[in-house]
Batch of 2 targets.
Target 1
Amino acid sequence: MKWEENVRRVVPYVPGEQPDKPNMIKLNTNECPYPPAPGVQAALAAMQSADMRLYPDPGAEVLIQGLADYYGVKKEQVFVGVGSDDVLSMAYLTFFNGDKPILFPDITYSFYDVWADLYRIPYETCALDGDFHIRPEDYRRPNGGVIFPNPNAPTGVYEPLALVEEILQANRDVVVIVDEAYIDFGGESALPLIKKYDNLLVVQTFSKSRAMAGMRIGFAMGNEKLIRYLSDVKFSFNSYTMNRPTLALGIEALKDRAYFEEITGRIVSTRERVKGELKELGFTFPDSMANFIFASHSRIPARQIFQALKERDIYVRYWDKPRISNSLRITVGTDAEMDSLLAFLREYIN
Ligand code: PMP
């Protein structure tokens, strides 16, 4: 058909499946196994549907001010979006607009190349080393921008801020995006570096550590000028990205720092315990600083374990891709969920 010549064709990103089975154990999309802060429930109960006839605040003022206060930056340094996917997508559209290829690791969040293709941005990948670490020297060549997650996904590998800064030092003339979706599980945020580098955009999300994947809240922090450019593109795309319930509930989640620390602490301690038990079962994995573990077994292929788990309604994530086709990404759930997983694996492997 003639009209197909004008179609913007893309190969879409494939998110992890969202099955809905009564007794499933869902460890496949890095969600938080605990509910959001109690204040979120209270605010939800107090919500009036009558308010929904009105558009939400296009400036998302309450949430932006709340984030600015929480992180000790100015509100002009904060941008919010519909999950960090939306924030990252807008950042690609805004900042990756040159002829040179943008750079990101070969093994990383599989949305990065999809946005590049969608927006017709040339890109090159830089191979992680044998232990899945970034080689900073790879980011010393001419490029149109840099993006990487820290900790990385799906490996969980965290790079110290010295490495992040080394990449920033070598890339003063392009925008560098550090995707910190998993930073709250033990890593140190690059946020303080935004004072020193006006080309650094730090992106985070409420989806993992704040237990609100279903509300879709992501945010970016950076130099005021960077945020202004990002907002200009966003307001040229969709004024009302953040709906009323999202704004009201997001701010409630932010208010409860103690609860946030409690649930992230619990996930970290479960993760450390599970690392030990997986090792005993013959699994190896790069040391994870995220809410998941990227594990391979010494004898049994990952694909086979993935299938066996699925038959028991235990969902983990598997990719049939170069370098990672023998690994399973296992989200850290509650202690009870991890115990069920480990009990099954113990039986299956022995
Ligand atoms: N970045 C990375 C590295 C991720 O793994 C994810 C989760 N799929 C995201 C960003 C997007 O998360 P969200 O849109 O829920 O904030």
Target 2
Amino acid sequence: MSKNSEDFVNSIQNYYDIALQLVMKCGPSVRDGYSSKQADYEQKSSFYDLVTKYDKEIEDMLVAGLQKAFPESKFIGEESVAATGQLPELTDAPTWIIDPIDGTTNFIHRIPHWCISVGLSINKELVVGIVYNPIANEMYSARKGHGAYLNGQRIHVRNCTAMNDAVLAYEISLIHSIRVRDKNVKRLSKLGAHSAGIRCIGSAALTLCYVARGNFDCYHVEDLQAWDIAGAAVILREAGGVLCHTKGDEFQIMKPNLVAAATPELAKIMIGLIEEADAITDFTFK
Ligand code: 2AM
Ligand code: CA
């Protein structure tokens, strides 16, 4: 290994170690907030877009800790973007992409599927992913090229190549938006009809981790943001999964419309079924 690439590997390890510790440190306070009573919340852009004081607190804690450890860092965080209304452009700089609570509605309703999600992009490539569910005590983590882990144990996708053997995850909450409702109803109907089971857990990051550990086999979602996906994207890929754009092109983190699958065969079948769903024109649910 050249000196430069050795330095790069060491620096990624350092980013990973510090971020893992910081995320773990957020566990107790957010766990207390979840357990005490239904958390107070506010609406952001809509009646289904919610935020609690814990979302803001965790993001602030993570940004402060990472900034202190790595002053060269940039940040793309859900709550800072909501506060400023500005989505920063992804640059080559080390950029932490943070969702302080992915699955905020679950958090508020005391449904135990939510997580803290952190991804690190360097040179516009995702290299570190950390997804932590403090209620289940599940820490998912990955560094590019070093495999994916759940609480320190390696995880792998399931070798699933057929849709009728696959458990499909689909984010049905997105039918809230009239803009994408028909698209989602058509795609869910087409994909779901061919799959062995359909599940929706309300956290994109955890859903991707469930594909990574072989509980679910595939997932399709569009119209989310980088922070919903960044951390788990690294985990899924390092667990051997496939992540691509809905049309089969390269996955783009800043516009993360995606097909995630345990195998390339399954991803190809999903892309085909989505195309078939989109070709249905005599349907409207509005
Ligand atoms: P969030 O909890 O961070 O908002 C399930 O609802 C998944 O979709 C979660 O990962 C949630 O992230 C994300 N999501 C993002 N925007 C959403 C929206 N407008 N409605 C519902 N879910 C949304
Ligand atoms: Ca969130």
